[in-house]
């Protein structure tokens, strides 16, 4: 005959919340275990002469609560395997925030029967004490494992397992990623215990400055909100806004756009972002990243309207690709250096093509977008050719090639000059590749330097009340050298 563990909920308050059935089981059982003695029902059990054992000593033996719950499950299963039927009593309801119960359900074998008998749960007390209806939208979260992505401001949230000031501090920092620092939150204690309930509202930044408020019966409550101060940091709100812009009652300009009409915008916004990166302008980089994201959102919204894909399909495909192409992170492969990681990426990329039935690349040079800027395209062409050994073996050969191209320009006919200058540029880009210098970034740096120095010339001429169109080259050259000396543009 199977041994049986009956898990009973003792409710969130005193003995008035005990069902008659649970009371009878407690009264008639010889083997009763309680997770903790710290519960208002326990004094009633004492008055009734009901004998029990508790696991309170385990809390002193383990530094982490999870270890306590695992040990409780191990002990109870061990007793059941001896053939003893037993009762395990937990606060509230057995299936609400009771990790020890979860371990019992996961680890028991077919020779042990588990029965669950619910009492009034902590959540029942929450709904009554805070006067909220969960049908409006409700989340019950664990303070010990709370992450930003768990938080949904459009729903009421109760954050449990906030046992101490340190967990409260972690919860506060996570909430501050979404809510303003002074957002009102409620510290709720002893819910369901008549005469002992406590609700204290504090601004978020003060949450962990109330150490005496946190113990095993405390939690944090945040009411749902529609405030833009909160929702405008949510990706779901961005999706909603983009959709609204494209609706019949949305923005006429946004509604009129197509993939082709805003194609150039993506390129322009990307270059504006690159400029902030090159200038290490972090403040404006945030804004320009948003502008690039806007283009991604608009294209995705249009595709959704056409029935092709949604932004969440884009995100899923990207996540799948990142996991698949990083087997050294998410799988069993190893990569200590960047070059090794790149090899895994390329191997997985080729495997994907084979699985999709895509014809093998006919040329080593295939796969380079035709609309890339020509400097970047030349760099990629050279890099792809180098992978199969078509490359100079010594940098001195590259310098020699540049000298040859310059000499050919000197002797070229007018009709051949464009081709010869192109050859020279191609050779210089090859040199940058050998030197591991990004030619696009290098030229961008030089352009910025030129702009700053030339603008210095303009400023100095204006101060001297000289017309730049009438200034001699000698004067401008002198000011240019002055700009260099002063570090204008570095």
UniProtKB/TrEMBL annotation:
GO molecular function, one term: methyltransferase activity
Annotated Tetrapyrrole methylase domain residues: 4-207
Protein keywords: Methyltransferase, Transferase
Matches recorded under Pfam families: MazG, TP_methylase
Domain NTP pyrophosphohydrolase MazG-like: 257-330, 402-453
InterPro entries: 4pyrrol_Mease, 4pyrrol_Methylase_sf, 4pyrrole_Mease_sub1, MazG-like_dom, NTP-PPase_MazG-like_C, NTP-PPase_MazG-like_N, NTP_PyrPHydrolase_MazG, Tetrapyrrole_Mease/MazG_pred
GO biological process: dATP catabolic process; dGTP catabolic process; dTTP catabolic process; dUTP catabolic process; methylation; response to stress; TTP catabolic process; UTP catabolic process
Domain of life: Bacteria
Name under which the protein is recorded: Tetrapyrrole methylase family protein/MazG family protein
Organism: Tepidibacillus fermentans
């Amino acid at each position: 005959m199977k041994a049986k563990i009956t898990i009973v909920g003792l409710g969130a308050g005193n003995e008035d919340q005990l069902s008659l059935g649970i009371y009878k089981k407690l009264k008639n059982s010889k083997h009763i275990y309680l997770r903790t003695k710290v519960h208002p029902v326990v004094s009633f059990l004492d008055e009734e002469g009901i004998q029990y054992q508790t696991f309170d000593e385990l809390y002193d033996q383990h530094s982490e609560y999870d270890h306590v719950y695992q040990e409780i499950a191990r002990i109870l299963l061990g007793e059941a395997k001896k053939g003893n039927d037993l009762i395990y009593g937990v606060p509230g309801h057995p299936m609400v925030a009771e990790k020890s119960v979860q371990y019992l359900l996961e680890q028991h074998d077919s020779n042990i029967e588990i029965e669950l008998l619910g009492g009034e749960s902590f959540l029942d007390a929450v709904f009554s004490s805070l006067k909220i209806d969960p049908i409006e939208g409700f989340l019950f979260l664990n303070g010990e494992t709370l992450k930003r992505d768990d938080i949904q401001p459009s729903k009421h949230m109760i954050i449990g397992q906030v046992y101490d000031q340190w967990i409260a501090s972690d919860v506060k920092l996570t909430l501050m990623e979404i809510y303003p620092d002074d957002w009102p939150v409620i510290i709720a204690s002893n819910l369901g215990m008549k005469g002992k309930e406590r609700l204290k509202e504090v601004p978020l930044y003060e949450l962990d400055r109330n150490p005496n408020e946190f113990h095993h019966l405390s939690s944090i409550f945040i009411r749902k909100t529609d405030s833009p101060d909160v929702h405008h940091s949510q990706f779901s709100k961005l999706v909603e806004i983009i959709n609204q812009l494209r609706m019949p009652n949305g923005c006429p300009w946004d509604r009129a756009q197509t993939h082709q009409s805003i194609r150039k915008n993506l390129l322009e916004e990307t270059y504006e972002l690159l400029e902030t990166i090159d200038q290490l302008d972090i403040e404006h980089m945030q804004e320009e990243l948003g502008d690039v994201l806007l283009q991604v959102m608009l294209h995705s919204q249009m595709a959704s309207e056409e029935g092709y894909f949604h932004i969440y399909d884009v995100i899923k495909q990207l996540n799948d690709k990142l996991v698949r192409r990083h087997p050294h992170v998410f799988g069993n492969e190893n990569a200590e250096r960047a070059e090794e990681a790149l090899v895994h990426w390329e191997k997985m990329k080729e495997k994907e093509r084979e699985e999709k039935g895509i014809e093998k690349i006919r040329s080593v040079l295939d796969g380079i977008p035709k609309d890339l800027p020509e400097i970047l395209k030349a760099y990629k062409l050279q890099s792809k050719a180098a992978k199969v050994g078509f490359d100079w073996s010594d940098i001195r050969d590259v310098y020699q090639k540049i000298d040859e191209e310059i000499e050919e320009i000197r002797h070229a006919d007018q009709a051949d000059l464009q081709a010869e200058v192109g050859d020279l540029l191609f050779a210089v880009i090859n040199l940058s590749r050998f030197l591991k210098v990004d030619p696009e970034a290098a030229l961008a740096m030089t352009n910025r330097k030129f702009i700053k120095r030339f603008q210095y010339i303009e400023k100095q001429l204006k101060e001297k009340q000289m017309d730049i169109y009438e200034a001699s080259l000698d004067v401008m050259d002198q000011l240019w050298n002055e700009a260099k000396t002063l570090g204008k543009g570095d």
